[in-house]
Amino acid sequence: MKNVSRSPINLLGRKVSHLIPAFDDVPGIISMGERDTLIWQLAQPYLRTRDNDAHTLYSYGIARQLLRRLPEAHEHIVLPAIILHDTGWSTVDESDAIQAIAPDRDGSYSWAVFQHEKEGARIAREILTEAGIPATDIDEICEIIDGHDTRLTALSLNDKLVKDSDKVWRVSPHGIDVAMPRFGLDREESVRINGYRAYDDLFTDEAKSMSLALMAVECMDLSPQMYKLRSIGRLNG
Ligand SMILES: [Fe+2]
Ligand SMILES: [Fe+2]
To answer: Which bin fits 13, alpha (ψ -120 to 50), beta or left (φ > 0)?
Structure first.
């Protein structure tokens, strides 16, 4: 986690650094473990198209938090699946991919969505085999990846978590950011279009709560009241 240096003395002239809890004591602080770092490193060359690498990292973080609230799901399935789910976009031409996911798509590029799922499952199988993941786990992970966008029902709780982590990302700051230039939207339009697609489609109540929390921050950021604070220099940015 990035560390920014600053004075250890607060406004009251006192030091509080001894009160800061250890990483492991804070609910929700996460970083990638050894297994996932290896899978991520092997997946990265396939995630360079569009913003798939950053999308994957944010979706991974969301999946980690959902697993905390839904511990009956299997992290050794969900986490490799979310890291690898979009590797198949590397086999689809960039402009075809944009056509396939555009808000005004007419279905004529659906083949590209199916291709990224099928090829993603194939690439995932190669990477997971290289990473030494057990064969039965590989089968389940690949089954989740193949259909993660087009299959409207979930195969299992593990599948639900992968689908929800992927979709909650849409209302993250990064998800809102990337939709703007991609589809010619301003920020408020991007919040509306992404927010519409990141609630009703979610499978778990936990993901719905996360989506609403992210929407709360985005909407207050865009509010006239926050705009006013920004314009009089009460906020940075
Ligand atoms: Fe996808
Ligand atoms: Fe995705």
So the answer is: left
